[in-house]
Amino acid sequence: MLANVQRLTEPLRSYAVAVFADTPLAAGIVVMLRELGVDVPLVGLRDQGGCLGGEAGFRAALARAGIEDTGGMVIMQDPSLRRSREAILRLIEELPLGVIGSTHESTCCATCRAPRRCSPTCR
Fold first, then answer.
1. How many domains does the chain have?
2. pTM > 0.90
3. pLDDT of 83 strictly over 60
4. Which range marks the domain in which residue 11 is found?
């Protein structure tokens, strides 16, 4: 059974996904993506002022799931729409990137200057 799961998740290991959500949801999505082998280089926590845990709560949730090392993940607390867009566009220049978030964040892939670098999740 484990071999089947590994075979199914192997293609996902070449993808990277940025996540923008409230802290509890972001933590759950990141844990799931990491279990599937997907890299998560950027997380934007949308709970204004950290009312749902903020970065400390996010890191604690990851730790409870057994993820101690975030591997260079950039965590942005309450990023403005401009900061989110700039961070996404900067990453798209470096690697194939999908985005899970609001329409604003997702639209960055559609309007980027390097569409060939976007992952299929952007389309």
1. 1
2. no
3. yes
4. 2-118
